[in-house]
Amino acid sequence: MTDVAISPTKSIYNPDARTRRRNAAEMRFRLYGLSAVVVGLVALVILLWSILASGLGSFSQAFITIDVPLTASVLDKSGTRDVEELKKVSTVGYGNVLRVALMEQLARDKVDTADVSEKEIFDLLSKEAPATLRNMVLADPSLVGQTIKFKTYANGRVDGYFKGRVTLESAKLDSNITPGQLLLAERMQDAGILTSGFNWDFFFGPDASDLRPEAAGLGIAFIGSAYMMLIVLVLAVPIGVAASIYLEEFAPKNKFTDLIEVNISNLAAVPSIVFGILGLAVFINFMGMPQSASLVGGLVLTLMTLPTIIIATRAALRAVPPSIRDAALGVGASKMQSIFHHVLPLAAPGILTGTIIGLAQALGETAPLLLIGMVSFVRSFPGAPPEGFLDPAAALPVQVYNWTQRGDPAFVERASGAIIVLLIFLVVMNLVAIVLRRRFERRW
Amino acid sequence: MKFKSLVSVAAIAVAATAVSGVAQARNQVQIAGSSTVLPYASIVAEAFGENTDFPTPVVESGGSGAGRKKLCEGVGVNTIDIANSSSRISKSDIELCAKNGVTDIMEVRIGYDGIVFASDIKGNSFAFTPADWHSALAAQVLVDGKLVANPNKKWSDVRADLPAQDILAFIPGTKHGTREVFDEKVLHAGCKANGVEEALIAAANGDKAAAKGCMALRTDGVSIDIDGDYTETLARVAANPQGIGVFGLSFYQNNTDKLQVATMGGVVPSVESIAKGEYPVSRPLYFYVKKAHIGVIPGLKEYVEFFMSDDIAGPDGPLAQYGLVSDPELAATQKAVADEVVMGPLN
Question: Rounded to whole angstroms, how far apart are CA atoms A261 and A258?
Fold first, then answer.
């Protein structure tokens, strides 16, 4: 009998040099992976933080509420309350009415206005205010002769002061506002004339020009995006699903279908601006469709989304096991029946997910819209569909792009606010896609 | 059943698309062009929509050249009505227009725009002359009467009484109309003042074309072309407080809390000094109207008249408030617009 000495180096508790090296390599790889995830997360947090920090302010807004006497002798010289007559008074006239009303309000509330000129006081009101008041009167001529409570935006710089974007120091250097105006705004806040509140108009109002950032809203961009998504949904899904079913179930396998397949995969990778060039050439120049219309935008985005939907749908169809088809055919169903009664319902969750992801992609796209005139200043709301599809409209990502180019820093806040809204939309769409997949997906 | 209804909806949509191929009547004015003119045009469009029964015109940006090209695409409701431009229309544009049947173009000068040189508010103050900018940025300068590659590192090397700060300039990229003005009014003027133009022509045996060398910039990284808009220039200046950016006057006026402006030839840029012609770096802004569309597109002529009215384009109007220098010859422009005068050939 010889003693079999178990060498301690052979124990699994005491790894040899090579094993140690392998373990260390694995450890390192895990760390690489973890650090990659951490880097990604940090980048995401920084992105979200910077957007939220600069954008959340756009959801609230400083408002000024004053009593405005709508004197008939000023606003309606004819005395007929006829809308055509009332239109003769321009926004300049309504501006004068507001200035007088604001001065009276300040005097009534005993707000000290000693070191601020009348023009500077009037500048605290948004330049949007006269237009809002004029539209109110034109919509309801019976208001003339009454004194109404009128709530309007404060000037963008004043609004920025209450959000911390503008300070007394920066106002000293700023040619558009003085520290005196800001201190007056504070006194107005104490007197209850100036209040802060949630800014619904940021979501529902139209865009505004560079002189009145406080009035700029996302309303038209919302409608434009919604119209385009509707068009994409109605066109891309039926076409995409029909094409996939044909290619997957009916088409013979030959060089021609191979060519189509390669082309579809290629199209999915084509830069989106190329679809914009196509849209300009075909839809606008050749077919004579109007510029800046959501119809053209929707068609261009449909072309862009189609490959995504076709690829997702074909993958979903392929995932349905052949046994289902065989069983259906075996009990006497036709090919058509086996597909529409069995394969398609089973593939539906996958198709739906692909569609939603394609739509989310289309929702965030700006490049193809650049060339078809959708990156523009639009202030009239588009009409109701179907005619409204031909009216000029904006889109959410385009609005972000537009606002970041403006000179007034208040638009940076608006742009970040719009990014938040867009992100929320995208997260919701992707969540819906995940939930649908979890809910209805079947595994075999 | 569900599928069938989906198919029929799709069919209707396709049919609607096909029908819309027939040109639609358009009831709002369509404008495209210069991003410098865009804020002015959108201010006017907004006021026009508020004070008249016409819908608010749609204003698209995209650059002066792109806007003029779009104007020249042809006549018809699916083409634009007005091109905004920060530089004058060129002969090649007019030829392209004529080829596509756009023969009658009205030229409207809306006013003047100043180009300012501004640096970080916390940094040094500058008083420039065009000659300083040429000595700082040109590829070749004169040293002891000889043309040499630009050796200047600091502004104090350029001229002793400028601050000893590294030269770093953010200037508009070549696709901008602003760059043309910068080249002409700053670099070329400075080149002449420095005597470099003469030296260049002499070096090329009297070939006048050699004067183009005036506009050649040094390539060692002190002059950076910005192809984006002024917001990008502002971000670059904020990141490099040593840098000096080239801005439009109105952009500077909206950001006076972050930027300080340099004088040029001893003149502080302002609406007043540009109107008087004292500040040297300014340029006219234009828009071009397709006359064939007047009477076809509702509100087109009214928009142009509204734009050029004293209340809007005058010295007390909202455009001047935003930084446009009102045209002293506004009355002549108003008359030309009222009479629908078409521009003659360029000379």
Answer: 5
Amino acid sitting at position A356 = I
The predicted pLDDT at position B237 comes to 92
Do residue A210 and residue B32 have CB atoms under 8 angstroms apart? Answer: no
**Residues 257-316, chain B: which have Cβ within 8 Å of A?**
257, 311
Chain segment A398-444, per-residue pLDDT in tens: 999 989 888 888 899 999 999 999 999 999 988 988 888 888 877 76
Instruction: Flag whether residue A285 sits within 8 Å of chain B, measured between CB atoms.
Output: yes
Distance CA B312, CA B333 (A): 13
User: Contact, B112 vs B336, CB < 8 A?
Assistant: no
Cα–Cα distance, A228 to B334 (Å, whole number): 41
CATH 3.40.190.10 maps onto chain B at: 23-112+284-338, 114-282
β-strand partners of A10: none
Q: What predicted TM-score, i.e. pTM, was given to this entire model?
A: 0.85
Contact B80 A92 (CB under 8 A): no
Q: Which residues on neighbouring strands pair with residue B297, listed in sequence order?
A: B294
Residue A390 to residue B24, Cβ atoms within 8 A: yes
Q: What is the pLDDT of residues B312-330, one digit of tens each?
A: 998 888 898 888 988 888 8
- Annotation: CATH topology of A219-440: MetI-like fold (1.10.3720)
CA distance A425 to chain B (A): 25
What b/e string do you get for A155-164 counting C-beta neighbours within 10 Å, with b at 16 or more? bbbbbbbbbe
> What is the per-residue pLDDT across A163-218, written as a single tens digit (0 to 9) for each?
888 888 888 888 888 899 999 999 999 999 999 999 999 999 999 998 899 999 99
CATH number for the segment(s) B23-112+284-338 = 3.40.190.10
Distance of residue B265 Cα from the nearest chain A Cα, in angstroms: 23
Count of CB pairs separated by less than 8 Å, A with B? 139
**Do A238 and B229 make contact, defined as CB atoms within 8 angstroms?**
no
Q: Are strands B58-60 and B30-33 parallel, antiparallel or unpaired?
A: parallel
- What ipTM did this prediction achieve? 0.83
Nearest-CA distance from A270 to chain B in Å?
23
- pLDDT tens figures, B42-84: 999 999 998 998 999 999 987 888 889 889 988 888 889 999 9
Can you tell me the distance from the alpha carbon of A173 to that of B257, in angstroms, rounded to the nearest whole number? 5
pLDDT at B23: 47
Residues 8-67 of A with CB under 8 A from B: none
Residues in chain A within 8 Å Cβ distance of B61: 375-376, 405
- Residue extents of the structural domains in chain A: 8-55, 59-215, 219-440
What architecture does CATH give domain B114-282?
Answer: 3-Layer(aba) Sandwich (3.40)
pLDDT score, position A383: 87
Segment A360-375 shows an average pLDDT of 88
